[in-house]
Structure formats: C-alpha cells, structure tokens
Amino acid sequence: MSAAKRQRTCACCGTPFRDGQRTEVEPFIDDAIRYLAVLPGHSTYPPRPVRRLVPRAGPETPPLADAA
C-alpha cells in the first residue's frame, strides 16, 4: 500500500488526495524510518533561512603596489 493511500491527506497541509493524483514522499525518522506523503511542492521541513549579504564595516583594503 502506498503512503498516499495509507494517509489519505497531505502531511503538510491536510488536503485530501484524489485518486491518481501524483504525490511525493519525505522520510520521517522516529525510532524507525517512515515515509510521509505530501503534495508536489509541499514539505514538512521548515524553509531554509534566507541569508542576506551585508557588507562588513571596517577599514578598506589598501590597493596593491605595482610590482614594476
């Protein structure tokens, strides 16, 4: 039996699966490895944090002297 048929709803949002609808699976480890069915594009994992590049405050790098 597939994870989608066993669950009947998306592990992320709770929307019921329709017959023949494509699903994705995610591993879930809780003393044993289990698989959760989710709708495509959904995930039970938290989103990755967005890293923003911020220029560092400090002295500027001096220009290189000509080696000539």
Average pLDDT across residues? Answer: 83
User: Which structural class is indicated by helix and strand composition?
Assistant: mainly beta
Strand order of the largest sheet: 1-2
Element-by-element helix/strand order: HEE
Estimate what percentage of residues fall within beta strands. 15-25%
**Helix count from the secondary structure assignment:** 1
Q: In angstroms, what separates the terminal alpha carbons?
A: 75 Å
- Coarse morphology: rod-shaped
Using only C-alpha atoms, the radius of gyration works out to 24 Å
| Main β-sheet description | 2 strands, antiparallel
Low-confidence stretches: none
Total strands: the figure is 2
- Helix-residue proportion: under 10%
Q: What does this entry look like structurally?
A:
The chain is mainly beta and 68 residues long. The protein has a domain at 3-38. The protein is 7% helix and 18% strand. It is built from one helix and two strands. Strands 1-2 form a two-stranded antiparallel ribbon. The protein is rod-shaped, with a radius of gyration of 24 Å. The model has no long low-confidence stretch (mean pLDDT 83).
Question: What is this entry, summarized?
Answer:
With 68 residues, the chain is mainly beta. Helices cover 7% and strands 18% of the residues.
Helix and strand topology:
Blueprint: H1 3-7, E1 24-29, E2 33-38
Antiparallel strand pairs: 1-2
